[in-house]
Design brief:
The protein has 219 residues and is an alpha+beta fold. It is 43% helix and 16% strand. The chain has one domain: L-fuculose-1-phosphate Aldolase (3-Layer(aba) Sandwich), CATH 3.40.225.10.
Length: 219
């Protein structure tokens, strides 16, 4: 069953608070949105509002043309990126943008995430990367949309953060958290003076095919 708009809004605030509590965003960082089922409209978090205690009434309703439909506050400066993703991918109904510390630290060192953990790697699939673009810019929105059109669900933004795309808010949230889990394990390996070993390509591809077929069989 499709969630109601009020349920979507409550879930957006829950995800945002969880990201804040986990240290994946700070007080004024990050943004979360959810598309309204069957419509070209979405709810998104506001700009410059404390993310640790966000309320449903703080959210902004927009259409894919960038017009504000409801809400008294300013939408996140990244609304263009969220809108561009929804236009590019009809299967995506939720977008989470966070500033994962360990993912960014490894990225700054030029170390791309490896497929080291089975479940996390299976959920993430291929991780996309976008070079530095100004936050909130149309250039960033288009670059992320291009990666979305390539089919990825997880994107690392150079010097900026990560983006998780999902059919639901829970999936998008899980993608962002899984990126940080992979980064933590790899950080520990590097701290111990060892190069983390990735899952062999053939094994990983078989795992992705198995999970894809299982998902189709469930419905």
């Amino acid at each position: 069953m499709n969630p109601s708009e009020e349920e979507l809004k409550r879930e957006i605030t829950r995800v945002t608070r969880t990201l804040y509590q986990r240290g994946l965003i700070n007080a004024l960082e990050g943004n979360v949105s959810a598309r309204i089922p069957g419509k070209d409209e979405f709810w998104i978090t506001p700009s410059q509002v404390f993310k640790g205690d966000l309320k449903a009434g703080d959210l902004i309703k927009m259409n894919l043309r960038g017009e504000v439909l409801e809400g008294a506050l300013k939408p996140s400066i990244e609304w263009r990126m969220h809108s561009a993703i929804y236009i590019a991918r009809s299967d995506v109904n939720a977008v989470v943008h966070a500033h994962n510390p360990l993912v960014l630290a490894l990225s700054l060192l030029g170390r791309e995430l490896k497929n080291t953990l089975t479940l996390e790697s299976a959920l993430l699939g291929r991780v996309g990367r976008v070079g530095f673009k100004l936050p909130g810019s149309g250039e960033l929105a288009e670059a992320v949309a291009e990666m979305a059109r390539a089919g990825v669900k997880a994107i690392v933004l150079d010097r900026h953060g990560v983006v998780g795309l999902g059919a639901t808010l829970v999936e998008a949230e899980a993608i962002v958290e899984s990126l940080e889990s992979l980064a933590l394990i790899e950080y520990i390996c590097y701290s111990l003076g060892e190069e983390p070993r990735g899952i062999p390509g053939g094994v990983l591809e078989s795992l992705w095919k198995f999970l894809d077929s299982t998902s189709r069989n469930r419905g």
